[in-house]
Amino acid sequence: MENSGRAKTADERLTISRRSSGDLLSERARQGGSRMGQRFTVAVLAGTTMWLAAYATASAQACAAPGTASTVCSGNCASIMVGSTQGTPGNTVAIPISFTQGPDDGQPGQGFDEVAAIAFTLGVPGTGDGTPLTFDCTNGNLADGAVTPGAGIASNFTVVVENAQCTNRNRCLCADTSAGQTVDNFVNLVVYGPKNLPEQGPVQIPVLPASGQLVSLTMRLAANASGNIPLHIFSALPGGAATPQFAANLSIGDQAACDVTANSQNRSNVLFTDGSVTVGGVIGCVGDCDSSHSVAINELIIGVNIALGSAPLSSCTAFDANSDGMVSINELIQAVNNALNGCPASS
Prior knowledge:
With 347 residues, this protein is an alpha+beta fold.
């Protein structure tokens, strides 16, 4: 994981960007005029625009004019999913974010089936009010373990938290509130590769894994946090929460360095699944019907039946993590995670 402001001035980062990517500059228009130089990745985080670009390989292809995501994805699409979890006030929670490539579109090196870079803003909360979730920070930097790349990402991709530091800014994730700085209630993330650039010669841009976890965010619940905290990836699609100032809508770029966030008919090429953090006094193990501190296959089947309405909630109330009288997709996902990874240690 790379912290965007660590140990480099804006000019130093610009020099690195120019040397590595032929004058491709990454710049975010925000208070203080801070610049974030990324190697061969342009990520302009300003309002609602995010551009992903890169040096293409020797078989470079021309990019079609990018569409604007104004219609929800239907049919074949890539997908990004924010996991749901639960925790107690004052303690930390792990928020997994996963990505799945779209199905083969028949265009080698291009399209939503060969996504090579992603940039997005996660609202914590997605409603944009309050700061119930924050990162632990050390000396103005994210603490170790705050952002963990997925197993398929760590070796050949870089994860950048663009708004980690407040250098030349008055707001960020690791803000000094005593100096009048404001803590962001959103996380600006960029994932791109390759992690290591050759000293010279062409650059082969790797494609993200077909599916799996992009990152896991370890965040701390505020002492006064309560209820259900929505976790939302902002996009240009209508009807969703407004993208915060200094944040950006999701964008994806393919191996040919083209922006493929939407198609020529302005249909989004990405399906979204938002997550949530349920705050309670005691962490339970979602899906653990018999209190055995584990979730078995037969218990997952019970949860699915409750969600479908073919079994009463009373058959396993452990699936109703937020006590709303029903079983949601997010609760089923949490139960599956508990079945695969084990129940939370404190449950």
